[in-house]
Amino acid sequence: MVGQWGKEDDKKVVVRCYNDLRDRIQMECMEKSCEIGNDQTFLFTDTLGDPICRIRNTPLFTMLVAEVGTKLVGCIQGSVKPVKFHDKSVNVGYVLGLRVVPPYRRCGIGSILVRKLEEWFVSRNVDYAYMATEKDNEASLGLFVGTLGYTVFRNPAILVNPVNPSQGLKLPSDIDIRKLEVEEAASWYRTHVAPTTDFFPDDIDEILQNNLSMGTWVAYYNNNDNVRSLAVLSVWNSSKVFKLRIGKAPLSYLLLTKVCNVLGSCLPFLGLTALPDLFTPFGFYFLYGVHGEGPLCGNLVRALCDHVNNMAASDEGGACKVLVVEVNGESNGGGDDSLMRCVPHWKMLSCDDDTWCIKPMKCEGKMTGLGEFNDMLWKLKSRPLFVDPRDV
C-alpha cells in the first residue's frame, strides 16, 4: 500500500502490515518518542516486548506501519468485534495506537494510516469505526472529526483509585459477595445489561473465559428487606498485558504521596491510604461490566470495589497499584451518572476528558445522511456504555 504525503522531494510513504521480526526494535524506539501526555504529565507504556499486546485478545486485529525508505515513521492498530449498537448486532472496528514520530508529523501520514485501516475494516465487514482520544487533543480531533468525518458521541470518565497495600478494607457485615461461574455471569449480563447498554459485546463469553479475566462478583444484602438491590462487576488483569509509568506529575501529587506515606507508616491509626509509586512501571485492574439495580445499589458497588482492592493488595507480586473504571461521564441522570458518585476514586488521578468518536463504514438503508446519524447518536446518549476490557 502506497500513499502520498505532504513533503516535497522526499520518498513516498509505504503502509504495510507489521512484521514482528523486522520491525520490533524500531517500534520500541517509536513508542519512546511518542509518549502520551502534556507539558506537565507524561504516561509511558511498557508493552512487555509485545507491541500488539493491546489488541491481541480481540477476535480480529491488525497493525499497520508507515515506512519512509527503511525508517518506520508511524503505526496504527485496529481490532474488530461484534457488539450490540442501536438495538442491532453490528461489527465495530476500534482504531487505536496511532503514532507518527515528531519529525514526520503534519505531513498527512496519520491520515494515510487511518484510511488504510478503514479499508481493512471495510474488507472485514465492519459497520462502524470508533476511536478514543482526549477532548483537548486538538490534533487528534482535527484529524478524525475535522478531516476524516468522525462524530463525537460519548465523553466517558476514567476513574482511578489507588490500591491500599497497608491494610485490607473492611467490608460491611450486612453485604454478601459471591463469585459467579462464567456461564452464570454471561447469562446475567445478557439478561440485565445488554438490553439497556450500547457496545455490549456479543462475544461476552469469550471475554469472561479469557485468562486475563479474573472473575465476576455479585454483591447483595443478606437482610431480606433489601433483597431487591444488587450490584455486579468483573475484573480484568491488565498487569499481565502491559505496564504504565508516569514520567512527570504535578508537584501536588508528589507532596501528597510523601505526606500520606510518611504519616501512614508513623501514625497507622489515621487510616490514610498509602499512595502507590507510579513513577516506576505499574499495572492495574480494570473493573468492567459495573452494574447496579435497586435503591441501595450504590453501597453495593462500593463494597465490590473495596473487595477488588483487597484482592489487589493481597497479590504477592504487587504489580497492581491502581483500580480503573470507565463510565459515561455526562450528567444525564442515567446509571453511569450515579456510578461516578459511588465508585471510589481519587479526583487527582482520574480524568473526565476521554472522548469517543464514531464513523459509519456502511450506508444504512434508513439513514439518509450524516444529520440523521447524529440524531440517532443523540437519542442513544443517555444509555450506559459497556467498556470492553480488551479496548483498554
- Tell me the name of the CATH class of the largest domain: Alpha Beta
Strand content: 25-35%
CATH-defined topology of the largest domain: Aminopeptidase
Write the CATH architecture name of the largest domain.
3-Layer(aba) Sandwich
Could you name the key traits of this structure?
392 residues; nine-stranded mixed sheet; 9 helices; 18 strands; globular; Plant_NAT; N-acetyltransferase domain-containing protein; Acyl_CoA_acyltransferase; GNAT_dom
Protein model, in words:
This protein is of the alpha+beta class. It has two domains: 162 residues, Gcn5-related N-acetyltransferase (GNAT) (Aminopeptidase, 3-Layer(aba) Sandwich), CATH 3.40.630; 184 residues, 3-Layer(aba) Sandwich (Aminopeptidase), CATH 3.40.630. The protein is built from nine helices and 18 strands. Strands 1, 2, 5, 6, 7, 8, 9, 12 and 18 form a nine-stranded mixed β-sheet that branches. A hairpin with a 2-residue loop joins strand 6 and strand 7. It is globular, with a radius of gyration of 22 Å. It starts with a strand and ends in a 13-residue tail after the last helix. About 5% of the residues have low confidence. This is N-acetyltransferase domain-containing protein. It comes from Eruca vesicaria subsp. sativa. InterPro entries: Acyl_CoA_acyltransferase, GNAT_dom, Plant_NAT.
